[in-house]
Amino acid sequence: MPSSTLVTFAAGALEGSGSVLHVVPGDGASVIVVDATPFHPVDHTWPDHVEITEAVMAAISDEGEFSVGADIPVKRGAEGWTWLVGHRLAGDAPEWLAPGLSVGLSVGAARRAALSRGHTACHLASLALDLALADLWRKDPGVDALGNPDFEGRANQTSRIHEDGSVDEYRLGKSLRRAGFDTETFAATLSEREASVNAQLAVWVASGAISSIVTDGPTIVDRRTWVCELPDGKAEILCGGTHVSSLTEFASISIMLDLSDPQLLVMTTTAVPAA
């Protein structure tokens, strides 16, 4: 049985080489799979002999069924499947790009850095939000990575990382109220809660805390954990993405809370890179 793709992005690699395993034609966009890659399977673009538009999850079953992205019929890491990183091309694969060929891979450093800042800022903002809302729980919702009531885990329904920031949506419906969260007091004190989150983020950025990714193994399906040595304690969050190496890479992180829809909280996080 073939091995899952070896990945080096967790250690910060931007360059690498690999042997082409599969060239899969598509509707004007081929997918290339190599045995090792520095790409994180989201959408890092890079200039090379062929242009990669995004890196995507791919999988091949023990019976030889090859699937990409949303077409994969099983959950990530399922038995009977080999898990791969596919590199989607802007068009058809050139004839010279064939299985067995050794190729070089290069990730756009500026985009990687901006996405890493956005991802780390997203985690920090969620932890600061949990802390700012801690007094609004009448029941125990479980705890987050710093031991505070886990609003993030209970209410978050979408989280979208982009360059130097993120947008998170939290459902404030009946189920959250039944879980013991005081939505009325939250709505009445929204501006104070926002200010509290931003004050906490400023303290954490000023600390220059170390941030890292701890991996359980070298393949795309091995567990990876974001770890940050904050003044309030060590935060550890399961996370497959890339992150900054320390909070000194930020000039600031701030959030805005939008409760235009009383059933839906939108938190927009903005990171400003250090000069």
Please give the share of residues in helix: 10-25%
Q: Give the integer mean of the pLDDT values.
A: 91
Estimate what percentage of residues fall within beta strands. Answer: 35-45%
Radius of gyration: 21 Å
Q: List low-confidence stretches.
A: 42-49
Q: How are the strands of the largest sheet arranged?
A: 6-5-7-3-2-8
* Biggest pleated sheet: 6 strands, antiparallel
Count of helical regions: 5
Determine the structural class based on helices, strands and strand pairing.
alpha+beta
**Overall 3D shape:** elongated
Please give the number of β-strands: 15
Order of helices and strands: EEEEEEEEHHEEHHHEEEEE
How far the N terminus sits from the C terminus, by CA atoms, comes to 48 Å
Descriptive notes:
With 275 residues, this protein is α+β, with helices and mostly antiparallel strands. The protein is 21% helix and 36% strand. The chain is built from 5 helices and 15 strands. Strands 6-5-7-3-2-8 form a 6-stranded antiparallel β-sheet, with no helix packed on it. α1 crosses α5. The longest helix is centred in the middle third of the chain and has 24 residues.
